[in-house]
Amino acid sequence: MEESATALPYEIDGNCHQSRPHRAQNELASPEKPRAGRLPISYAARGGVTQIEGVLVTVGRTGKLTPTAMLKPVAIAAPRYKPATLHNMDFIDRLGVKIATGSK
């Protein structure tokens, strides 16, 4: 199923298998478990490599500094340009993020 999902004209990240016959499904289901008899399957997450185009540091109302990475778009599902919070310098160091300064 996961391999054939790439041929679809839209993105999916999993599917749901339903038990047969329907009588067995009805016996498994109840008001507390309306989806009993169904088995959700999630596909492996797809990822990619991107570059940080810049870092924006914002100051919160308490004075806390929060670095935010502006990421270069990567075509995974639909390309999206989203910032990613880097949390703090310890987190940046742990990820091994390199922030270049100056022009190219």
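The record above closes out task 2.4. Task 2.5 opens with a second protein, given below.
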Amino acid sequence: MFNVSELLFTDVTWGLEDGEEVDWLAALRRGLPAPIKDLRSMLNRGIEAGAIQYVLEQQPEVMPAFLVDPPN
């Protein structure tokens, strides 16, 4: 399992040469390459490329109030 920060880390470091340094401040300011709403399609592309093996979706047994009644 992973969180979005791990997705950012993978995006920033994928394809780097050994010893190549990352400008983390610039990477954090740039953010993810696609809106988070496109996460499902990004995961599908990762599965097709063989970089991701499993994708699990979880739903809590009791939904937190902020998910049941989103603010307007």
